[in-house]
Amino acid sequence: MSEKRKQPSKSPDALLKQHHYPDTPLIVNRWLVCSIEPANSHTELHCLKIETGTALASEETVFELHGPWRTMNVATGDVVTVHPPPTSSHAVISPTSGAIAVSFPDLLLSPTTLAQSIDCVRRGVLSQYDSPPGGPSDAMTVGVSVHEAIQSVLMEANDPATPPRDVSDLRRRMEELCEGPALDQIKGDGHLLNAALWIDRVLRQGYRVKGVEYTIVSPVLGLRGKIDIVLGGPGRKTMLVEVKTGKLPYAMTSSSTRAQAALYHAAWTIHEGETPDVVVLGTRGRGDEGVVSVEPEPAEIATLLAHRSSLAARVWRLRRGEYSSIDIERLPPRCDWCPHIDMCNLLGSTLDMIHPGPDPNPRAAKAALDVIAEVDREFNEHDTPEWVTPTLRTVSMLAILTPTLVSATVSGPLPSVGQRVVLGTQSMVEGQVVDRDTEASVVTIATPYGQARNADRLDLMPAHDTTKTLRHGPLLGLEGPLGRLLLMNRLPTAVAPLGDQEVAIVAAACAEAALSNAQTTAARHAFTHLISVVEGLPGAGKSHTIGAIVAAAARLGKTVLICTPTRLACGQIVSDVKRAYPDVSDLISDDISTIDLTGSTPPKVNVVAITTHRALWSFHALETFVQAKGLRQFDILLVDEAAQVQTPTLLPPTALAARLCLIGDVHQLGPVVKRAAGLRHTVMDKLLEFESPCITSLSAQYRMNDVICRLSSQLVYDGRLKPANETVASYRLNRFEDFVPSTDLDRSLSRPVSVFDLSGKSPAEVVPDIVSGIKRQYDIPPMQISVVAAYRADVSAIRAALPSIEVDTVDSFQGQTREAVVFVCTSPEGSAATLLGSVRRINVAVTRPRGLLVVVADRSRLGEQEEVRKLVEMAEDAVL
Ligand SMILES: Nc1ncnc2c1ncn2[C@@H]1O[C@H](COP(=O)(O)OP(=O)(O)OP(=O)(O)O)[C@@H](O)[C@H]1O
Fold it and tell me: What is the pTM (predicted TM-score) of this model?
C-alpha cells in the first residue's frame, strides 16, 4: 500500500490566483494528516479512517504534518504513506506550513446542498439525510427520467455506431428511454422537445460528452458532488451542465442555482486548471427559457467562499444572515415537503432548550439534551471520523444556534483575552476570547463577532466534553441586569436619580416634542432605570418618545446605542431626530462603519443606530467606538420594536450598555420564529409579566380617528387604546367640496371604516376601483394611500394592477402612518391562512391609517379565518 507521490505541479492557491480567484487564501476545509512512518512499516495507518490523502517527499523540503492530536516532522527521504491510497484531488498541501491536508469526504457537502443552504439555514447541517420519506414524488420521477434520457442520448452521440440524429430523432429516442408511467406527463410538459432542441444545438456546435455524473471533490471549497454532464467542445472549451429537468423556469435563476453554478465554476477552475462555461439546463420552460448560461459574478464567488469552510461554519454564517434576510414564516410551503423536516424539528427542540420559554424546567432541558444526543447519533452513523467527536458536533451546533458564548478546552498555549480566534480545527466558530482559565486550559469565546479574518486557530481537545463548560459558562450579556432577569427571574429596581441640570435638559427635550405626561415619564426612566420598558400601543408615540430621549442624551453628552430589528426603522429614527432636533444632527449616525475610530480625538458622534443583527456583526466596532469615547459601555441601549427581538439577539448589545430601555408593543409583529417556541417568548414579554414602576404604558394614541382606533382597541387591547385628544378622535379625511356620492362604493368610502367583499373576484380586480374611489372623493396625495396585503402573491398582483400606489406586506408597514389604507385580508386560493391567523399582523395593518381604513375580505372563506372573521364583524359594527 505504500506509495510515493510527487507534488502536484501547482499548489492549489497558485491555481486559484491564476484563475481569477486571486484573493482566495487557501483554507483547507476539514483536514487531518495521516501518519508517517519509515518505508517498511505502515501499520498505524490502518486504524485511521482516512479515505484520501496525498503524500509528499520532496527532496529538499521538510514537511510538518499536523492534526488535532499530533505534530510530526517529516524529514527528507521519509516516505509518507496513506491508506487507502489517496487520490490527488482529495488532498491539499498547505502552502504556509507545508502540511498535508487530507479531506474527509463525509464532511464535504454536495454542491446542491451547499447551494440550497443559502436559502435554507438549516439544510447545511442536514444535508446528509437527504432522502425523501415515502419515495420520490411525481415531479422527481419525471425529472429523473428526463435527466437520464438527456445523458443517455448525449453519450450515444459519442458512439460512432450511432447514426446522426435530428431533433425529431433525438426526441423519439428520449421517449423510448423515458418509457414508463411518467411518459404522458413528460410528453405533455414538452420536456423532450426542449431537451432535443438543446442537445441538437450543442452537438452541432461540436460539443461531445466527456463525462456524466462526473465526480468532483474540492477540499478547498468544501464540497464533493457529481456534475451532471461535462461537455468538451471546439477550442478545448468545457461546458459544465447542471440539469434541472423537474424544475420550473424560475428555478433556473434562483440564488441557489446560481450558487451551484458558481461552485462548479470555482471547483473546476481550481482543480482542473481551466475556466469552464456553466449551463443550467431546464426543460419545462418554453424553448430557450429553460437554458441558462451562468457566468458567476465575483460577489457570488465571494459568498460561496465565505460559506465554504466547514459544515457548521456554513450554517452558522447563514444563520447570522437570517435575522435580516430569511423570513422563516415565508418558507412553510417549502418545509412541508422538505425531507429534512424531522431533523429540523430536532434542531427546533434544541433551540427551545437553549432559549427556554417562560418556565425553563429540568424536564425540558433533559428532553433537549436527549435531542442533542440523538443528533449526535445521527451524525455518527454516517462514518464520522473518530476525532470529530460528538462533542465537537454538538458544540458547533450550539454555536450555530446561540449567538452567545462557548467555552472550550484547548490544547497548546492559551490565547490572551481579546484575541480573535477560530475555535476548532477549521473555521467552525469564530470569536473573541473573553475569558481564560490557565489551570483548566479553558477559554471562553464570544461568538458571533465575525471579522475573524486574522484569527488564530485553536484546536479543541478531542475527548473533552466541551458542552459542559458551554452550558455552565457565563453568557455574554447575562452578567448584567438582563442576566438577573432571565436567569433569576428578578427585575432590578435600583434607580440612579438625575442631577438638576440633567433633569432640566431631559424635560426641555420632552417639552419641545410636546410629550404627554406618560411619554415624559417613559423618557425619564430611560436615564434613571437599569432596565425600563415602554409598552406603547399603536400610534401612542413610541418613536416620538425615542426622539426626545435621543436628543436629551446627545445634549447631555451621553452615549446611546439604538437597536432596531429593521433597517427601515433604524433610518427613520435617525432622520426624525435630525429633523426635529437639528442641534444634535451631527451627533447621531446610523452607520458605524463611517465613524472614524482611528483618530487621536474621540468621535464626535454620541448616538449610534444599528439593526439588531448588524449589532452582532459589528460588535467589535461598537466596542471600539465606546472605547474611543473613553468609556466602558454606552450609557443607554434603546431597543425599538423590542417585541420583535429574540432574546439571544439582545444579549450581545446588552453587554455593551449600562442601561437598557425596551420600547415596543407585544400586540404588534413578533419575532419570526418557526418552531422554537422558546425564542418566541422575548425579553419584552418577560418584562411585562412583572408589575414594576419601570414599565410605562402609553395607551393614548395620536394617529387614528375614533372609529379606526375603536376597531383595534376592541380587537386587541380590551378597550385600552384611546385617542389622545379630541382633534385626533374627530379627524376625517378632507373631502373635495364638489364631491357628491353617486355609487354604493362612494357611500361606503365616505365612512372612516368600510368593508368590501371580493365577491368571487381577485384582490387585484377589486382594489384598483376602491383606490380610484378614494382618490375621487378625498383630497389627499396618492403617496398617502397605501394598500397593505398579508401575502406576497397578492402584493405582486395588486402592484401590477396599480403601479402608482404603494402596495406592500403588513410587515413592511410596521411603524408607518398613512392617511388611507386598504387592507387586503385575504389569502390566495390554496394557501393556508397562517399569516392572517395572527391577530398581531392584523392589528399592525388596521392601525396604520389616520383617517380611512378599507378592509377587503372574502366572505365565502371567513369560516376558515377566525381572526379575519372577527375583524370583519367588528369593522361592520364600527361602521354602524
Ligand atoms: N405627544 C404627542 N403630541 C403630538 N403628536 C404626537 C405625540 N406623540 C406622538 N405623536 C404623533 O403621533 C403619531 C404616531 O406616533 P409614533 O409614530 O411615534 O407612534 P408609535 O407608537 O411609534 O406607532 P407604531 O406603534 O405604529 O409604531 C406621529 O405622527 C407622532 O408625531
Answer: 0.54
